[in-house]
Amino acid sequence: MQVMHNLRPMSNNADSQLAPPGAGLPVIELWAARLLFALTRLRGGRETFVARFEQERAAIRALVASCPEAQRGEQVLIARLRGLEDSSRDWSVWMTLDHLRITNIAFARVINALTHGKVPPGKASTAAVKPSVSVTATVEADFERSCDDVLAAITKATDLKTKVRFGHPWFGPLDAFGWAAMAGTHMGIHRAQIQSIMAGLRQ
To answer: Is the distance from CB of 84 to CB of 34 less than 8 angstroms?
Structure first.
């Protein structure tokens, strides 16, 4: 896979060449993603969702630890990965953690609300969960806390197969079971992103 190293002074040019936030995935890729996610929900359960999430969390933690701290805030323009919006491919390691922090908090809140019979206010949007370019090392602890929130929401729920649902912009209305399945899958996409970013940093 081609990985292009892009230091911060070039990022403004890179940003102008990327699709706008919230543009989504190519149509065929989106169809494939919906099928794969349906299979994940069909074959999985609370235990497998928790195991996948913990596995990806540990892998991300190890990757971050192996990256020199001085480079963790350096943006790298990578080739687009499957499941990744075009606008998200010019991030740093810390920006990726910030995105995961934001989405993990959202996943936990949605799961908690649905398992209490409530539909969260507002509407989920991929454009609304982009990271800050000025994120710092503090995001590493914040990311870990957000992971704890997700695991607590999944494990403490009496029943994840809720009657109420909350819409995902790509996968439609999901019950708490669907959002629990999403959490680990989403972490896996961005673990691969961090791997690509680190490959670019080594060039």
So the answer is: no
